[in-house]
Amino acid sequence: xxxxxxxxxxQPAFPLIIKGLKRLEYRGYDSAGVAVIDTKGxxxxxxxxxxxxxxxxxxxxxxxxxxxxxxxxxxxxxxPPNDVNAHPHLSGDGQLALIHNGIIENYHALKETLIxxxxxxxxxxxxxxxxxxxxxxxxxxxxLDLFEATRVALNEVVGAYAIAVVDIARPDELILAxxxxxxxxxxxxxxxxxxxxxxPIIEYTKNVVYxxxxxxxxxxxxxxxxxxxxxxxxxxxxxxxLEMALESIEKGGYEHFxxxxxxxxxxxxxxxxxxxxxxxxxxxxxxxxxxxxxxxxEAKRLIIVACGTSWHAGLVAEYxxxxxxxxxxxxxxxxxxxxxxxxxxxxxxxxxISQSGETADTLAAIRMAKERGAHVFGICxxxxxxxxxxxxxxxxxxxxxxxxxxxxKAFTAQLTVLALVAMRVGQLRGTMDxxxxxRLMVGLDGVPEKVxxxxxxxxxxxxxxxxxxxxxxxxxxxxxxxxxxALEGALKLKEISYIHAEGYxxxxxxxxxxxxxxxxxxxxxxxTQDAHYEKVLSNIQEVKARGGKIIAVVTAGDTEVARxxxxxxxxxxxxxxxxxxxxxxxxxxxxxxxxxxxxxxxDQPRNLAKSVTVx
Length: 615
Ligand code: G6P
Hints:
By secondary structure, this protein is an alpha/beta fold. It folds into 3 domains: 3-242, Glutamine Phosphoribosylpyrophosphate, subunit 1, domain 1; 252-453, Rossmann fold (3-Layer(aba) Sandwich); 457-603, Rossmann fold. 36% of the residues lie in helices and 23% in strands. Helix 10 (308-325) runs parallel beside helix 14 and helix 17 (483-497) runs parallel beside helix 20 (579-597). Residues 307-310, 354-356, 359, 362, 405, 407, 608, 610, 612 line the site of 6-O-phosphono-alpha-D-glucopyranose.
């Protein structure tokens, strides 16, 4: 959470920082701030509760000048979202300004020590403690410049950080450091860009350096980029070329990023299949598996860890791996798994699923798994993200940047990659016969077109949304492969419309949620013609008998459900394992339209952030 941006170069820093913050607003949007240092060494500092636009309104015409600056968009952890807790934070003498993404876990002990040494604090944040700590280290020895003082101070710090620090005495220098929170440095011609991810950088340069854990960097117009570890070992920067296109991070005529991303799904799924699904050869090519073939053929167990929507993708994958590979699978919330004492070791493959590749709990889970000897296979969307770099092997989802906080195209791309992985492993282990594999490959190849057909029914979705937008509660049901789709449907609705929603396995409804059903309760249910079809019909009857309203996702041409349901949405037929890629899309669109009708902030729902880099 929290987005950080920095600039050092020949252009005015302020507009660049504001533009960068808007790109990073998905990471947090409860307050924002900037600090700019001009060539005469004076610092202008603005902070405001609310969005980047509120900050802009607050700054008004008083735009700070200067070519060195830092900016921050916050998702509150320590202290409520208000002007005072917004970043950048300043040292006591006002000489240093610092922005931070992460959590300093030992901030309380550090704060007590600093107070005993005469420091006083104006905010509730852990970040303010860090800038005071660096100032204190600088004061303790005149030999230490900002770079050295930051490095030394970070040795005292426990926790996660991506930071950028400036010193009014050094208007041509920017100091950066990271541990567990991401930081990218863009290298332009006589200018440097810094950000939590590459989206603010892409329109200026494609050359970036990803800072690694416990590295401290100095960018200076006269001396270039220098990196050392916090233990003072020299590091040679490795420049990577970005492949992202600028258009992919703009709205492209859609009202919201979420709607654009929903409509991008035929393309994102096709991109995910490209080069992997080799229909002509009757095989699947996935380098991350093929390069470690014996490990996959000999694996005894798969453990899938993830959070949020990615965890739902993991639940679908459990059914796939059991069906195609006949291997034991466990699916775990990363936040629980990392604090258990799981029985884990060689012969286990841990699959980590993460859109951002930065989720703190998932990252911690993979580190634990590696320590215990398991092989980590990462499935990430963001290229170059921490999880993708720390995994032993993996596969990208190739869905392109996802900006809307509620995940849509990343989820269907995760389901697609997971199907490919399960099919490839089933092929290698001989648990899938060639005909079954071939049928599924043909099925996967046809998915983008089926998604396209579904997206054409936009007006149907709007009509259903209109009918249920005032409901205070909603229930989502599904069985088998579609049980996780029900969970995901409920999550989508509550995330962006703030309507209370629960997802349940349809048969479990009798053990509790059925008590909630009356004529005001919409029940969204996946009733496609799969192995559980007849059973789901009975569940629909149970809801109808109690007056509930049924909105059913059905297989095209189904008349039986239509007789019982208040509304049906048809998806084209597909193999059971592939249906979730289709059946989840109506729930994305219904949630979207309900949220728009309720005038919610669809792309940036309250209290949420897209990239959860704190535990
Ligand atoms: C946040 C986002 C969700 C996402 C979850 C896991 O809660 O709002 O959309 O599913 O984090 O994120 P990851 O990047 O690891 O998939």
